[in-house]
Every structure is written in structure tokens, then in C-alpha cells.
Amino acid sequence: MASTVEGGDTALLPEFPRGPLDAYRARASFSWKELALFTEGEGMLRFKKTIFSALENDPLFARSPGADLSLEKYRELNFLRCKRIFEYDFLSVEDMFKSPLKVPALIQCLGMYDSSLAAKYLLHSLVFGSAVYSSGSERHLTYIQKIFRMEEFIIHSPDFEAAKFWVGNMGKTATHAVVFAKLCVPGDQCHGLHPFIVQIRDPKTLLPMPGVMVGDIGKKLGQNGLDNGFAMFHKVRVPRQSLLNRMGDVTPEGTYVSPFKDVRQRFGASLGSLSSGRVSIVSLAILNLKLAVAIALRFSATRRQFGPTEEEEIPVLEYPMQQWRLLPYLAAVYALDHFSKSLFLDLVELQRGLASGDRSARQAELGREIHALASASKPLASWTTQQGIQECREACGGHGYLAMNRLGVLRDDNDPNCTYEGDNNILLQQTSNYLLGLLAHQVHDGACFRSPLKSVDFLDAYPGILDQKFEVSSVADCLDSAVALAAYKWLVCYLLRETYQKLNQEKRSGSSDFEARNKCQVSHGRPLALAFVELTVVQRFHEHVHQPSVPPSLRAVLGRLSALYALWSLSRHAALLYRGGYFSGEQAGEVLESAVLALCSQLKDDAVALVDVIAPPDFVLDSPIGRADGELYKNLWGAVLQESKVLERASWWPEFSVNKPVIGSLKSKL
Amino acid sequence: MASTVEGGDTALLPEFPRGPLDAYRARASFSWKELALFTEGEGMLRFKKTIFSALENDPLFARSPGADLSLEKYRELNFLRCKRIFEYDFLSVEDMFKSPLKVPALIQCLGMYDSSLAAKYLLHSLVFGSAVYSSGSERHLTYIQKIFRMEEFIIHSPDFEAAKFWVGNMGKTATHAVVFAKLCVPGDQCHGLHPFIVQIRDPKTLLPMPGVMVGDIGKKLGQNGLDNGFAMFHKVRVPRQSLLNRMGDVTPEGTYVSPFKDVRQRFGASLGSLSSGRVSIVSLAILNLKLAVAIALRFSATRRQFGPTEEEEIPVLEYPMQQWRLLPYLAAVYALDHFSKSLFLDLVELQRGLASGDRSARQAELGREIHALASASKPLASWTTQQGIQECREACGGHGYLAMNRLGVLRDDNDPNCTYEGDNNILLQQTSNYLLGLLAHQVHDGACFRSPLKSVDFLDAYPGILDQKFEVSSVADCLDSAVALAAYKWLVCYLLRETYQKLNQEKRSGSSDFEARNKCQVSHGRPLALAFVELTVVQRFHEHVHQPSVPPSLRAVLGRLSALYALWSLSRHAALLYRGGYFSGEQAGEVLESAVLALCSQLKDDAVALVDVIAPPDFVLDSPIGRADGELYKNLWGAVLQESKVLERASWWPEFSVNKPVIGSLKSKL
């Protein structure tokens, strides 16, 4: 039921058309507009609306239903759209400093429209741009201006070692690249990876520079508006000044100099830029999950099938099974979105320290902590999204398998989030290593568990916490995220101890460090890292929904979301909770499971309103079964009949009309 | 190491080229040719080779690397290929009766080449054909002949109620459809669904018949060579003889007659045809998993990354993490493939009973048992494949994200296996209902647990078995599938009891039957159904690998596969095993987990040889990183450079050369 919203500009938020979704909207326990304003704030809502409206009103961004774009045409269109985004100049450099959250907001808006567009824009302006900005010096500032005027199209090469393959924007369009190469000075040692700006193509003709072989890696599973390329350099000479020299330089006399004492310190300072890619990906993943969940829940609220009587069929959202399949992912959207923004702000803090030349111990600690968090956040966000999209696709039945409903594109576009900037499984080792290092510190030096963002401070309860047991005996006592939080703290401490002990056991039995770590990663390091980041997400969202500034009318629904996400995530670790003795007996598992189902049931009537908060306009969502008016069949049939040649006879019909002779047999040719 | 193979025609099986896979092939503990012969038999291997060779030698089936086929062109090509398959006449009707397993074998071969081809062929010949055969009478035999001469292109409409949408082959090509409609006789009641042959298009012009609106539903996420359609009938008159009248008929005088006493009995007789679709899908799913696992394991055996020393990098298959990610799915391929063939033979037994007019109680029981098994087998196979393909895609890193390596197509083509012929989650209720019915029988009537295929006979151990506990204390004692089998029996009995009790509890507290079942399905019915079918798969493969006819040289590797699949599947239920008291304490969970990892490690050196057994020829597998010669980079680069316009400048390059004016600003227009 809509209540009047105090303050704020609600003309900013649309009124939804009347239709089949009315029943659910009327049953919501809160006002979606109030939640939208509370979650984002007026300035951010205005910013997003500006972007969405610009896209919807510009013919270049018109959706083409049923179009079968060739790879080449899609890349051209994506390039033109990217250029147009620069012309719109939604976000000035000053804006980025004043309101840093507008950066992920812009990327989310573009990505909700089309992942390929967000990727092209992000790689060019943010990744390349920030690489030049953070690794370069004054002499490289002219590149920054050119990046934003798109005078030369520029990309950032993330990984020189990977056969210089997969470079975003390099396939057709890049004129320059940031290339990370091992810097070797004659008569001196090699100094590890350093970044260089290298010209790839002649800006006038777009043909490759001499010595540079550059090409397109071809069609991908998704994000095909983005032209990924490969490059090989055959003794290409670049001027000395091409070295982006903030971290290290070579004098005209040929001497290597660096403000950092050693490689480790220099590497530590660069951890910030490694983390920024991963933090961005968290945001990219979540935008995909938002869209998928919006589509699947609007569908579920309007698609009717069977019912208790012959008379009326009920929406499939009324079934506990459908609620269990989808509502945890809705809760995950809210929890992970909040976490993503908070992590981005932590990263901004780190980057400001870097920019101001902060070399304190805290800055180094912050870099390591964010590196550990980012290394587990990317896997958590990308996998949750991957599983969520699959569930949404299946929950929409056959309609989910129609290309026009967009779930396939979301799945394909999210997929590489599990792989680039570090394979998820491999990356988690960074996080488990970080935690093991802290434990080793405590064991050997008696150090406390402290980190600048306080994400590890709870470990001070180790090892005493391991005697705790789960003592909730009724579902009613299990409906707050505080319960899950306590369990998670136990779980991470338990896994930390187990991993540490197993690692030592392996080494004692003769395994090398390399072998020992590999043997422990599957059963111990991996779940440790995941449990740690899940705890952090749960913690931050729990604090967010319990803070005094939450309007009373929103507390119940936010509390339920927080509890559902926390308990659902936790329930995936139930075996470990039993194994280590935190759970024992039937009741513990039953209570946890029943609490999850109870929360799903409680959130069912809020689902549509919760989707109204996170869904972009219909034009951007671009899914007939996910439209805000809820006219499922009207919209679906409308879209089907708009496809080209839907009722036409096949152009090749003579091939199978019966005027053709009966087919011969080729059996003798076998 | 290759050993001499006794008997059999080993010229039937290829010699692989020398290359980077040699090391693993040499380390295998068995001969892949021996396993291939043992698994399939010479006749089947010859049959598959004939099909694969025909495809490879026929230009119509040539692969077109880098081609960007339009939807229309793909459908035309798929149609022409399907027609060619009929011309080849690989499988006569007599063959189908003599060697029924050649039916799924043919479908697997076609599907490995292209899922759209298998689907088009299957729907036309097997689904439509068998519907006409099993539901029709002598007067419909002429249709059968025409089906196999493809004089008219014909499809089978699976579901009239679903807005007559999603009908395979109807989008462009079908001339006739089997339409299930409610049969209502004037002056009498309605008699439920009956099948009719209805003409959709004029065979000479391919234009729709009067009163029929028929069209193409548009692009799907996958299987786009298959034209799915929709149809609406506006009072279309069809002759009385169009009724496929085996199950029920209407006399010329207008009286409904049926050999069956009532609707239930008639429905029971039709369960066989419901099950055949689902059993086919098990086979379709598994072919996709075979391909994905083959690609990912050959990749993992040749892709090198890092290592214990700086000197040499090691194949990623050497890492426990990679083994854990992939080898369970290899084991699943073997276990599910065996199960799929055995289930198909069970289905053949049922269909022969139906064809011979068997109306015995055993035939009815068999129909119900197969219905229950098929309703859980489809979910198990399609989900295992879905998760397996995703894991394979990620395990191949960025290369898995290149379209040319085929993992995207496999994922998209397998996806609808989770949805058609019944959404997986909904379908599982059929299985749990079946089991609950058996328990109710036992509780109320003292009946024993007996079924024709003996899949439920183990339930006789209920409830005594619930006192059993897991008593394996060392990994060495945990390496045989017998251990998992015992645990599964306990688990199914436990879940059966819990579901039954919860259902009764719900009803006692006032829930209707509808509500009670829905409330119990997520937490109880669903895991019960899955555990039951997993047990059945494990049981059948366990018996298969332990039978006396297994050559001694193959026993070890087959035993390991059986144990790995069984323990890995079981481990996903660890929380329930603890909850119900079968597991207690740390050791149980640790032993299970360590056993899985130990088996992965033991199977690592057999992996490539095991793939050699299941992989089709390179031409059919169609994945540069999965080629049998293992020349990973040569094949990858070769394929990349074969793509059209790989090194060419973009055709639209003037759009971004710097001769164009600097971009303007559109900021004022926002």
C-alpha cells in the first residue's frame, strides 16, 4: 500500500500503469518509492533518470526487436553508442571526485542497457584512463584529455603474459594500449612489470603500426559489441617517455630509479589498481542479477498455473517452490548491492591515499585488506549472479528460453565475470592466504586481529568462539540476520583453524609449500575465503538495515531481506556447521531451513514492490515478460508478432514442397 | 599404456596423433580401446563410426569456422541436413526393434554434431512417428511411410494447453501436427485429451490451411536450427478418421468407445509415451556433458600454468583444484550414460507391452515405476550437465569464452532440457508422490516395497535401516561405491519418513492436500526424489562395474569412476546425513571429502584415456582446444586466424579516424 512519502521529489519516480501486478503492489508492506529514496538518495535517482532518459530518447539506442545483427554491425553500433556516451558527458572528472558512487552508477546504467556498451566505455575511460592517471606523471596528462575527447581510441592491456590475447577494445578500434612489460635495463637486473603506452594503430588510417600484429579474437559467448583483440610486438621501439613512470623510471642516462625500496613495496602499492578491476566487476555482476530477478519475479507474479480449485489458476509466485527459487536472489541483490557500494567507497579511500603519496603502514594494510576482500567479492558476486540467472531462466519456463526475454544475454554477458581479472577459484586463494597470514602473526607474534576496515576484527574471538553452539530452538527466534552473523563468525574461525592445521600437517609430512597449499585449497582454503566474504557482506547489510536512520516503515522489509540473505547463504554451509559441532541434532538444520522458507513466504507479497525499486525503465530492461505493466501475454504476443517474417512462409519453401521428387536413398554410399 | 586388445576390431578405433597429450595417455592404467569395446560393443562402435564418417565426408555438413549464420539460413541448412539424414537411412524400423539402443545412439551422434539437427530429426521421426504409431491404428499407417520418406514435413504438438506455443518444427516446415484436444461429443460428456492429426499447411505451397494461424516464435537461446512455432485453430474441421484411435474412438453414429474402463486406466496406458520424451532427454543431456568434459579435460592436460619451480610450468590438470572441478563430471558421464541406456531398455520393455496389448497389473506397475524414474532422471541428467558445462567453461578460462570452442553452444543447447517435458522442479513431485504412495500402502495395508524393475525393493529395510550409522573411519575403506550405496539407502529411507510425517503434520494442522504438498516439496519432496534417482544411478553403475564379465584390466578404473560419482553425489547431502544422525563428528565428513579428493587424484592420470573413449571425432567435437592431437596453441591460433576479417581494418574505420572533427558535446540536451 502506498503511503505518502515525506520530502523528496517523487515526480522523479514513475507511476506504474494499472494491470495484473496491481494485486501484489497493493499487498506490499511498504512504499517502494520510500525505499528507493532511502536506498539511493534523490541526487543519485536524478542522475540515473537523466542517463536512462537520454538513452530512451536517442534513436541511436533504439531497441531493434527481432534484429539479427551480424558481429561486425554490432561492433560498429556499439562503437557509435560509446562515442555518443562521451558526447553526453554524464560524469565530469570533478563529479567523480565529489560523488564517487556516480561512477559505478553510470556503469550500472549503461550495463543495464547493454553490457557490451558498459564494457567498452569502462575499459576505455576508467581502466585505461585510471592506469594512465595512477601510473603516469604530468607528461602523460595530455593522454587523459584525449581519452575523454576520444580523439584516439585507447585501450588498456590487462595481461601481457596471456599471449597478449583478450585485450578489450583492441580487436578493431584501439589506437594505443597500456602494455605491461618486464623492464630490463642493460647492465642491470630486470625490474619486473612496468606499464608503457604503446601506439598500436595509425590514428588517421587505423592500420597497424610497423612491427605490431593486431587482430580480432572473434566471436565470444557474449559481450560481442566489444571487440577483444590480440597483439604481438616485434621489437617495437617506443620513446623513453612512454614509460608510465609514477612507480619507477629510467633516467636519460639509463639508470633505473624508483621511489619504492623494493619490489614487494612497489607491488603492494599497485595492489590498488589490481583491486579496482575486481571491485568494478562486483558491480557489473549485480546489475545483471537485478535485471534477471526483476524479469523472473514480474513474470512469476503474472503467470498463472493450476491452483487449489478448478475455478481459478494462481500466479506461480504463490507456490513455496517458486518463492524458494527466486526470493533469496532478490535478497542477494539488496545485500550485494549495498556491499558493492561500500566496497567501492573503501577503494576510493585507498586510491586517494595513493594519489596523495601516502606511504604509511595503514595505507599498506588497507591495500592488503581490500585486495583480500576484492579477491573474494568478485567470485561471490559473479557466482551468485550466474546461479541466480540460471534459476531465473528456469523459473520463467519456456518463455525464459526465448531470446527476446533477455535472460540468455544476461547469462552470457555475466559469464566472463567469473573469469577475467582472475579465475574465481584461483583468486580465492588470495583471500585465504591473507587470513592465514593473520593467524600466523597471532600465533607467532601474539598480534591482534586488526584491519583498517575492521573486516577481520571479529577474529579476536578466536579460539574461544569455537566452543559456542547454535542454540536457537524456534523459527521465530531465527528471523534476524544477527543469528546468521553469529554462526558465520564461528564458521570462519573454525575454517581458519582447520585450514591452518591442515596446512601445517601437510608440510610436516613432507609437502612443499606449493603442494601443501594446493592440497588444502579445495577442502579448506576455498570455503574459508567464501565464508569470510559472505560474513562481511552479511555484516555490512545487517548494520545498514539496523541503523537508526532507517525509516520505521521500511525496517520490517529490510530486516527480512537481511535475514533471508544471511540464513540462505549460511544454509549452504550446514554440513560444516554440523561437522565442527556448532550444529547438532535434527532441530538445528530444521530450524534454519524452516526460517528460510518462512522468510520467503513473508517476502512474497513485497516482491513486486522490491523489484519496482531495483528495475530500470522498461526500455532499458528490454524484456517483454518483465514489463512494469505486468501484461504478460499481451506483451509477449506483441513482441512475437513484431519479429520479422513471423507468419511468412520460409524463403526456401520449394526445398520441401511435395512437388519435389521423393528423396533418394544414400544408403549404398555408406 | 596400450595393451593388446583381445578380439574385437581395433581398426574400428583410431590411433591418436603424437603430441602434448602423449604423457597422460602413456600414464593411463588401462587401454582406452579395451574400455570402448567393453562399454559399447563392436556393433555399436561400427554403427557410430558409419554415422560420423558420413557426416564428415558430406559437404552439406562441413563446419564453417567464423561463419555468422542468420537465423533463416541456419534453419534452412538444418532442414536440408535433416532431410539428408533420412536419405542416409542409418536406422531401419527393423533395426530399431532388433537393437533398440541404436536409437539413442543415433540421436547422440547427431546431437554431438549439432543439437538442432538431433532435435528436428527426433521430433519428426521419433516423437511424431511414435505418437502416430502408438496412438493410431491401421488406417494411420500411411502416415508412417510418409514420415520416413519426408513427403510431408510433420511435427508433434506436445501441449495444446500452453497456448499452442513452442511446437517443434512448426515454425516454418510442418505440414501436419498431432494435436491433443479435449474430445467432446454432443449429448455426452467430454472425454479428456485425445490426439488428432491435423493438417497445418498445404504441402504444395507451404501456406497455412484455412482457419489455421501458424508462425515462428522467434530466436531462442539455443537450438536455433529448429524452427519452433505456434498455432491457433479457428474452428478447423477435421475428418472423424483423423482421431488417432487406439485409446478411444468415436463411431460413425457419434458414440464414444474405448477399450479402457475409465479415464485413469487410459491415462495410465499413456504414461509410457509421456516417459519416452523424458528418457530421450536424459540421453540428449549426457551427450552435451560428454562433449564439454572432453573439451575441458584435453584443455587441462595441455594448458600449462605456473608450477613448483620457475623452470617449468605444469598442466593445470596437475592441480587438485582442477581435478576436483572436472573429474567428478567425467565420472558422472560414465555413470549417467550407463543408466541412460539401461533406462531406455526398460522403456522398450514397457512399449513392447503396450504394443502387444498387455493389460496386466505388472504392465501398469511398470508404467508407474518408469514414470517415477523418468520424472527424476530428466532433472538429474539436465542439471548435472548444466552445472558440468558451466564448470567446464570456467575451467577453460578465457578460451572457454570463445564461441569457437563450443562450450557456449553446449550450454545453450542443453538449457531447455531443464524445462521441456516438464520443469525439473515440478516434475520431481511425480517421483516423490510415487514413493509416498508406496509408503502409504505399506503403512495402511502392510504391503511390501516391490516394483518390476526392483528400484524400490531396498525400501524393505525401512524403518530398521534408520538406526544405522556411518562407520567408515579411514579414507582407504571409503573408496568403493558400496559405501555410498549404503548411505544412500539410509538417506532415502530417512527422507521418505520425514516427508511422510511432515505431510501428515501439515494436513493435521488444517492444510488442504494441495497446500500440504506444496509446503513439503522444497524441504522434503525434492531432496527425496533426487536422492532416490541418484541411488538408482549409483546402484546400476555399481552393479555394472562389479559384474564378473568386466575384464580385469578395466576393473580398477571403472571401480574408481563408480566410487567417485557415488561419493561426490552423496557429499552434496552431507548436511542431511548429519541432521538425521547417520553422520556424527568431524571424521565422517572429513573421510567423505578426503575420499573424493583421493579418487580425483587417482583418476587424474586416466583422465585423457577416459576422454578418448567418450569423445567423438574432432570433426564432430568441433572445438579447437579439444582436438585429439592436444596441440592447444597451434589449433587455437589456427582457428583464430581462420576467422573472417581477423586482421582487417574495421569496415567502418572512418567513424573514428582523427580526420573527423572532435566530438561535440550533447550535455546541453540532457
Q: How does this model look, in words?
A:
2 copies of one chain form a homodimer. Chain A is mainly α and 670 residues long. Chain A is built from 21 helices and 8 strands. Chain A has helices spanning 22-27, 32-40, 42-57, 71-88, 93-98, 102-113, 115-135, 141-149, 263-302, 320-355, 361-395, 407-414, 424-445, 481-508, 513-546, 552-571, 574-579, 586-603, 607-614, 618-621, 632-642; strands at residues 154-156, 167-168, 176-184, 190-199, 212-216, 228-233, 249-250, 256-257. In chain A, the strands form 3 sheets. A 3-stranded mixed sheet of chain A has the order 1-3-4, with helices on one face. A 3-stranded antiparallel sheet of chain A has the order 2-6-5. In chain A, helix 7 (115-135) runs antiparallel to helix 8. The termini of chain A are far apart.
User: Would you tell me the overall average pLDDT of chain A?
Assistant: 89
- Considering residues with a beta carbon less than 8 A from a beta carbon on another chain, report the largest interface and each chain's count: A-B, 129 and 129 residues
* Assembly annotation: homodimer
Radius of gyration of chain A: 27 Å
Principal-axis shape of chain A equals: globular
Biggest sheet strand order of chain A reads 1-3-4
Proportion of β residues of chain A?
5-15%
Distance between the ends of chain A = 71 Å
Largest sheet of chain A: 3 strands, mixed
Helix-strand makeup class of chain A: mainly alpha
Total strands of chain A: the figure is 8
Order of helices and strands of chain A: HHHHHHHHEEEEEEEEHHHHHHHHHHHHH
The total of helices of chain A stands at 21
Low-confidence stretches of chain A: 1-7, 153-162
Q: Share of helix among residues of chain A?
A: 40-55%
